[in-house]
């Protein structure tokens, strides 16, 4: 039987790194499992602006955490390119990479799997080059034909500013940022909050860069439709009602673009926690099911913590400190620091979280999803891009008795594709809620199933094959201190 | 009597939905109470309609038999899993034969396609033990005049080019087919609705009202629904519903785990059964790989050991699955009985109560005939097929 790890952290983003830093600092050995190649941890030559998981703002945080982590390499083991497919309530972790898969058992588990972009369907949203903010990085990495590109960024929240700034940095012309909400970017009410939470500086910096580039930021505006043959060529856009986001189609205008970036905040990756049996609760401010955690980041399953997995437009403000609290609490539970010491160490991140919570609530309230935009979906609009399920099929499923999201899935195959409903679940749930008038509790969610990351039958067939174990030699964090 | 009887069906899986459909079609006034629970067997079924195969122990039976046997008990393995009685085979064959017409009917009532396909079932032969087991099956099938056929290695390769060349051949069951189990259950329900049935979804049965030896009402959160008949079609939870009527229904959950692949181009024409796993390619292209037989109560998770075994079994049978992505792995709870046979019909001493439970591995194939028979009983008509071998009274053997 394999030896149990003391603490396994799933996810090497800000929350996961911060959790590892605090656990290791307290004397608890831990292992980070991260699906991506973790370039910022491996390569010394990366500058802060090249890092970027979600724009420059996230990159700066990761750069800072990387330097903190680099002083603790003797207690932190990092396994990059290692996907976690499933976790059990007993803290057993099923992992896989391209060649092998195996089971790792842990005494405690911190799930820091982050969030993915929430997208709202509109006619043409599945066209190539209509992408989510998180895909901006990979879009910029792709080889492109030379020539000026024009982009429009739409949706809601501060992530739009970060996406637009990254496009500008890469030499792409951003013709407009359209935010459906009544965002007050740059006005006094937010300027006053700078001192209260430093991270907002990054947003102000993004905003200033857009201003200097003369990119118009239009509050209460949205894309109505995208058109194009092979890729997106033209969008129609226009104003929405500030109260309910109903579109004013009579005032629609058109513009030519080569790229559309659209996102409406984050939808948390709760799959692993749900598979492990953690309780979820619906939070209507962010229109999402979230993992129920106490202030120490403990889920309802003993030994399992969840950090940095909130929904909404401002979750980046919370991720790092939630990770710190989870790391400290795990160290306390493991007995490497006393309860008093843990309380002392949690004090600073908890007080920053309290301050941030207020700002997040404010931003989330501004960007709360109103129902009007869902009226853009036409009966032939594909809601589930993976399985090509149109709104019309969802409507007929409801007409023949489908009463919850799981039921819609069974009848239409919505969410049965590779993304397991990440792209379509939100829109379908909201449609059921508002149009078919059902309570969010009844609408429910699409049951997540392992594997939550891609894996082949062959890799699973070789599970725990001793000759293919990834254990030897374990990869240590080799990041240098130089920033 | 001027009005038709009120039937309340407890359970919205394939069995309850079939009962609701046939009862509504017969003109009875039907209310179906459906509480989606985690682990419903209908939604973790692969949808094999293996009337002959399952009766002789193929599908999960042979997988379980091999995994349960000790390595030195070759003779036991060669004898294979136990066969179910003739009455069960006849029931399944009759029920299976209902599908072609049923598919048409349900399409007319609901507009839905249950994805019924003629496939046949192939038992792949890897070694001598498989061969001798297959031989004994074939002898028995001949007695029962079921259509079977031997395939040599070459014939197998021609018929199913993706199957491993290491198989020594296969035994084909000509009349075993497949269907989409969720589509079947939802089409039954939608058709029942269009025939006037009421479906209460997300509604739990809280109590049964018993008055002078008769069930007269079903309690849900909004109050009592009066009834002439209550039908216990609660699958793995049938025991719970039985206890509300002070009956001990011997149904227990037996977990089965299932792996679904990504959508693939058509590569299988037949369903495959091996001693490691079974494999079916569904209409939309995914291949389903099943399944385990586990006594773990109502736990609905998946286990690493099962995932490894089923994946390895799948790659052994179809080597090109090696590089195919897994889309999801999940499990369901089969409603098992002590003798693996369903429990159908009344319970002695309690009027207004009918069982439609305990279908274990064969709820999908046996849903049509079960629905038909139970609706006949509720209408006061003699059943199409004798339910005597499946009666609840068979368990009352204690002196």
Descriptive report:
The complex is a heterodimer of chains A (483) and B (399). With 483 residues, chain A is of the alpha/beta class. Helices cover 32% and strands 20% of the residues of chain A. Chain A is built from 16 helices and 21 strands. Chain A has helices at residues 14-25, 39-42, 48-51, 56-69, 136-141, 159-169, 188-191, 200-212, 271-275, 316-334, 339-366, 391-399, 405-412, 425-434, 440-443, 457-461, and strands spanning 5-10, 30-33, 76-79, 83-87, 92-96, 101-111, 115-117, 130-131, 150-155, 173-179, 217-219, 221-227, 234-239, 253-256, 259-263, 266-268, 280-283, 288-291, 304-306, 382-384, 389-390. In chain A, strands 1, 2, 3, 4, 5, 6 and 19 form a 7-stranded mixed β-sheet that branches. A 5-stranded parallel β-sheet of chain A has the order 8-15-9-10-11, with helices on one face. In chain A, helix 6 crosses helix 8, helix 10 (316-334) runs antiparallel to helix 11 (339-366) and helix 12 (391-399) crosses helix 13 (405-412). The longest helix of chain A has 28 residues, at 339-366. The radius of gyration of chain A is 22 Å and the shape is globular. Chain B has 399 residues and is α/β, with parallel strands linked by helices. In chain B, 32% of the residues lie in helices and 24% in strands. Chain B has an 8-stranded mixed β-sheet, sandwiched between helices. Chain B has a 6-stranded mixed β-sheet with strand order 8-2-1-12-19-18. A 3-stranded antiparallel β-sheet of chain B has the order 9-10-11, with no helix packed on it. In chain B, helix 1 (14-25) runs parallel beside helix 9 (181-194). The longest helix of chain B is centred in the middle third of the chain and has 16 residues, at 128-143. Chain B is globular. Chain B starts with 5 loop residues before the first strand and ends in a 21-residue tail after the last helix. Chains A and B meet through helix 13 and helix 16 of A and helix 9, helix 11 and strand 17 of B.
């Amino acid at each position: 039987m394999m030896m149990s790890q003391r603490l396994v952290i799933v996810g090497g983003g800000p929350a996961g790194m911060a959790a590892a830093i605090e656990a290791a600092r307290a004397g608890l050995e831990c292992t980070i499992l991260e699906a991506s190649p973790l370039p910022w941890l491996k390569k010394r030559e990366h500058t802060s602006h090249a890092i970027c998981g979600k724009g420059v703002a996230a990159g700066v945080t990761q750069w800072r955490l990387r330097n903190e982590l680099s002083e603790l390499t003797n207690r932190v083991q990092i396994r990059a390119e290692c996907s976690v497919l499933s976790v059990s309530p007993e803290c057993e972790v099923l992992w896989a990479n391209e060649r092998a898969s195996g089971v790792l058992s842990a005494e405690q588990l911190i799930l820091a799997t982050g969030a993915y972009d929430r997208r709202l369907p509109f006619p043409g949203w599945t066209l190539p080059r209509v992408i989510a903010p998180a895909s901006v990085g990979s879009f910029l990495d792709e080889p492109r034909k030379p020539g000026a590109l024009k982009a429009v960024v739409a949706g809601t929240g501060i992530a739009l500013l970060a996406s637009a700034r990254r496009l500008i940095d890469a030499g792409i012309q951003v013709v407009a940022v359209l935010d459906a909400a009544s965002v007050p970017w740059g006005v006094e009410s937010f300027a006053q909050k700078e001192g209260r939470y430093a991270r907002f500086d990054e947003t102000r910096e993004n905003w200033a860069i857009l201003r200097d580039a003369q990119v118009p930021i239009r509050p209460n505006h949205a894309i109505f439709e995208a058109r194009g043959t092979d890729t997106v060529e033209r969008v129609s856009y226009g104003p929405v009602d500030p109260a309910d986001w109903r579109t004013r189609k009579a005032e629609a205008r058109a513009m030519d673009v080569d790229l559309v970036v659209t996102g409406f905040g984050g939808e948390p990756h709760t799959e692993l926690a749900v598979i492990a049996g953690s309780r979820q609760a619906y939070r209507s401010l962010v229109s999402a099911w979230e993992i129920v955690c106490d202030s120490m980041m403990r889920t309802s399953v003993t030994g399992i913590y969840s950090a940095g997995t909130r929904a909404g437009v401002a979750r980046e403000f919370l991720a790092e400190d939630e990770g710190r609290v989870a790391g400290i609490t795990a160290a306390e539970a493991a007995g490497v620091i006393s309860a008093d010491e843990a309380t002392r160490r949690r004090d600073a991140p908890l007080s920053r979280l309290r301050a941030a919570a207020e700002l997040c609530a404010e931003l989330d309230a501004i960007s709360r999803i109103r129902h009007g935009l869902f009226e853009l979906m036409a009966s032939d609009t594909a809601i589930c891009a993976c399985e090509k399920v149109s709104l019309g099929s969802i409507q007929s499923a409801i007409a023949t008795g489908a009463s919850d999201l799981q039921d819609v899935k069974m009848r239409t195959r919505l969410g049965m594709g590779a993304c397991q409903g990440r792209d379509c679940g939100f829109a379908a749930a909201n449609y059921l809620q508002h149009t078919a008038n059902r309570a969010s509790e009844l609408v429910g969610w699409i049951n997540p199933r392992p594997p939550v990351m891609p894996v082949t039958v062959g890799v699973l067939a070789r599970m725990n094959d001793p000759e293919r174990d990834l254990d030897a030699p374990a990869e240590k964090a080799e990041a240098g201190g130089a920033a | 009597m001027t009005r038709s009887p009120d039937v309340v069906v407890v359970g919205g899986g394939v069995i309850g939905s079939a009962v609701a459909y046939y009862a509504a079609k017969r003109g009875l006034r039907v209310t179906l109470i459906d509480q989606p629970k985690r682990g419903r067997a209908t939604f973790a079924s692969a949808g094999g309609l293996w009337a002959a195969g399952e009766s002789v122990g193929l599908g999960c039976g042979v997988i379980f038999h091999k995994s349960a046997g000790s390595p030195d008990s070759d003779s036991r393995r060669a004898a294979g899993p136990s066969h179910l009685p003739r009455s069960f085979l006849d029931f399944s064959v009759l029920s299976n034969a209902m599908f072609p017409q049923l598919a048409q009917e349900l399409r007319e009532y609901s507009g839905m396609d249950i994805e019924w396909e003629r496939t046949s079932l192939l038992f792949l032969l890897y070694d001598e033990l498989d061969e001798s087991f297959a031989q004994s099956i074939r002898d028995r099938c001949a007695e029962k005049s079921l259509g079977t056929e031997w395939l040599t290695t070459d014939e197998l390769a021609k018929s199913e080019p993706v199957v491993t060349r290491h198989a020594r051949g296969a035994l084909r069951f000509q009349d075993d087919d497949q269907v989409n189990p969720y589509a079947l259950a939802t089409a039954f329900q939608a058709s029942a609705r269009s025939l006037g049935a009421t479906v209460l979804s997300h509604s739990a049965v809280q109590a049964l009202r018993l008055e002078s030896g008769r069930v007269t009402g079903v309690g849900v959160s909004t109050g009592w629904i009066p009834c002439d008949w209550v039908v216990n079609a609660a699958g793995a939870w049938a025991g719970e519903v039985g206890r509300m009527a002070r009956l001990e229904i011997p149904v227990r959950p037996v977990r089965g785990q299932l792996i679904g692949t990504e959508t693939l181009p058509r590569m299988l024409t037949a369903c495959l059964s091996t001693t490691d796993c079974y494999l079916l390619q569904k209409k939309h292209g995914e291949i389903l790989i099943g399944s385990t037989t586990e006594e773990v109560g109502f736990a609905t998770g998946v286990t690493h050991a099962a995932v490894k075994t089923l994946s390895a079994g799948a790659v052994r049978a179809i080597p090109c699955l090696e590089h195919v992505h897994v889309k999801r792995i999940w499990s369901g709870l089969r409603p098992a009985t002590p003798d693996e046979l369903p429990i159908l019909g009344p319970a002695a001493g309690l009027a207004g109560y009918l069982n439609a439970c305990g279908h274990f591995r064969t709820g999908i194939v046996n849903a049509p005939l079960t629905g038909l028979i139970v609706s006949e009983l509720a209408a006061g008509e003699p059943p199409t097929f004798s339910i005597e071998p499946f009666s609840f009274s068979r368990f009352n053997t204690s002196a």
